[in-house]
């Protein structure tokens, strides 16, 4: 759901990152603001609280995004939707880089705790509970929201930050594919527990979140199985990804965008053998980066590949 740009409003661009707000956010905002009616004397304060929630979420996502850039990764957009936010980050496929990119989000919430806590304590000392009850209640709820978001996000349940942090830690010992496999299995257990809790509490939002988590776990589980199978394939030693240095697997694992047939791009010099379509860049299955196939070639393969590419280009 959060990956869909259709129906999303482009809010602008901050630090080179596009910000999007899904249209359904407004529908949920009306419902949620109305549900806070008894908390304040005016709905204006309820609206401010709801906006503060998403300001904290946005700061959390920028934590992910900026940390990803710090370790050499890329990020192009952040999507805000009713259940939170998603930063579309692509850190280098190394456990330490991925770990920092993931941990930076919850660390933003940790950094905000003393700020909100001090503001709430100062308001209490100034007597706002009696003189400015709405503002005092708002500060208390903003502090509580930050605590809830922090605790929820660090639960070791995939795809929450805590579950992905656990996966990154396992990556150091188990490798990229098997760490994801274990994290998603644990994620299924945690999401199933959340489903039970949501049914017991009669919480629609918790049930929606649990459903999203189960779908994400299923997607991660399938990706892990695919990666484990790819790890067992023989590797083409004459080529290596310029970004991560991994040798590509041998076999028809690249799909032609023109005829939709699979082929081995390194066997045919990045030309589909079925329809003749040429591909200027080849994607690495490990780090998802793309480079011209001539940059992949190493050693004796380099001159042979450059000659093949030049020959095809001159046809």
Structural commentary:
This protein is α+β, with helices and mostly antiparallel strands and 315 residues long. The protein folds into three domains: 1-154, no CATH class; 156-232; 254-313, no CATH class. It has ten helices and eight strands. The protein has helices spanning 24-35, 43-70, 95-125, 128-131, 133-153, 161-174, 176-201, 204-231, 293-296, 300-313; strands spanning 8-14, 17-22, 74-81, 84-90, 254-255, 262-263, 282-283, 290-291. A four-stranded mixed β-sheet has the order 1-2-3-4. Residues 309-314 have low confidence and may be disordered.
Q: Which features would summarize this protein structure in a list?
A:
two-stranded antiparallel ribbon; 315 residues; 3 domains; 10 helices
Instruction: Quickly count the helices.
Output: 10
Residue share in helices? 55-70%
Largest sheet: 4 strands, mixed
End-to-end CA span: 45 Å
Parts with pLDDT < 50 across at least 5 consecutive residues = 309-314
> Mean pLDDT, as a whole number?
87
The gyration radius over C-alpha positions equals 24 Å
Strand content: 5-15%
Strands in their spatial order, largest beta sheet: 1-2-3-4
Q: Globular, elongated, flat, extended or rod-shaped: what is the shape?
A: elongated
Derived from helix and strand composition plus strand pairing, the structural class reads alpha+beta
Query: What is the H-and-E element order?
Result: EEHHEEHHHHHHEEEEHH
- Tally of separate domains: 3
Number of strands: 8
